[in-house]
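Long-time lurker, first post.

We've been arguing in lab meeting about whether nicotinamide-adenine-dinucleotide would sit comfortably in this protein at all. Half the group thinks yes, half thinks no, and nobody has a model to point at. So I'm putting the question to the forum: if I give you the sequence and the SMILES, can you give me back a predicted structure of the complex? Inputs are below. Any interpretation is welcome too.
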Amino acid sequence: MPIEVVVHGALGRMGREVVTALCKDTQLKPVGAVDSKAEGKSLPLPDRADSIPLSSNLEGLLAQTVPQVLVDFSIAEAAMNTVRLAAKQRVNLVIGTTGLSADDLSEIDRLARANEVGAIVAPNFALGAVIMIHLAKVAARYFDYAEIIEMHHEQKLDAPSGTALSTARAMAEARGKPFLHSEAQKESLGGTRGGELQGISLHSVRLPGLMAHQEIIFGTSGQTLTVRHDTINRECYMPGVVLAIKKVIELKGLTYGLDNLLGL
Ligand SMILES: NC(=O)c1ccc[n+]([C@@H]2O[C@H](COP(=O)([O-])OP(=O)(O)OC[C@H]3O[C@@H](n4cnc5c(N)ncnc54)[C@H](O)[C@@H]3O)[C@@H](O)[C@H]2O)c1
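Top reply:
Settle the argument with this. Predicted structure of the protein with nicotinamide-adenine-dinucleotide, as tokens:
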């Protein structure tokens, strides 16, 4: 029997991608869609002739469809209410919405345990990005110098990216001390050595034509090692989301981060 899934935030960019991914996997089945922008009562499915119930009322839709898993890609302000309603109805949770606090994560764990369901929260569902950070942590123990170049589309608001910051922190933690950092003796144009974190220079490129890319260059005597990850569209998150849906039904309580599902 396929795992029955409701998508919260189903009319958003990620939500639509999740509905499409569910339709492509024979072990999964979309059974309902929730979005505050919902108009009408059904959402046509991309690759199937039928449609699924659509509503702005999560509680009502969960009661109507009784899914095993709820996938949430909405907004942080809505996520905790979603968790409370779904856990109460004993629905397992896969949450990709970013911006949850440490208190939110503790509450998710407590609610999931109390209702004997699993909850997976991952700030990054792109498998390649998670494996890139893992490989960078391995290399960090053997190289004294490292720099990160992250490249994103020109509309990205923040710099550096959250992934670049968490990569740098993970590398320094794996190494147990800051990296060596080469200071320019004369910086004739300010900022050209990038921002510095734990001895690692971070450089942010913003250009139309890019999606999300990151390169970590390690250096030591006579050699460099480069670890690089490129994404070309939001499909990059779907293998991670699909994996989480299949795993969460076997779990109890909170699992944080895709790395913990991959056994890294
Ligand atoms: N974990 C990851 O790998 C990952 C990857 C990409 C995006 N994200 C996160 O996923 C979230 C969604 O991103 P997006 O690009 O799809 O955004 P989006 O704005 O395109 O979609 C969000 C959807 O949620 C709906 N929504 C808002 N408030 C709601 C509420 N109270 N109840 C029900 N639906 C509500 C909106 O109507 C919209 O359709 C963001 O938090 C983003 O940071 C996570």
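For your lab meeting: The pocket of nicotinamide-adenine-dinucleotide is lined by residues 8-9, 11-15, 34-37, 73-75, 78, 96-98, 122-125, 237 (CB under 6 Å). The CA atoms of residues 68 and 91 lie 5 Å apart. Whichever side wins, do check it experimentally.
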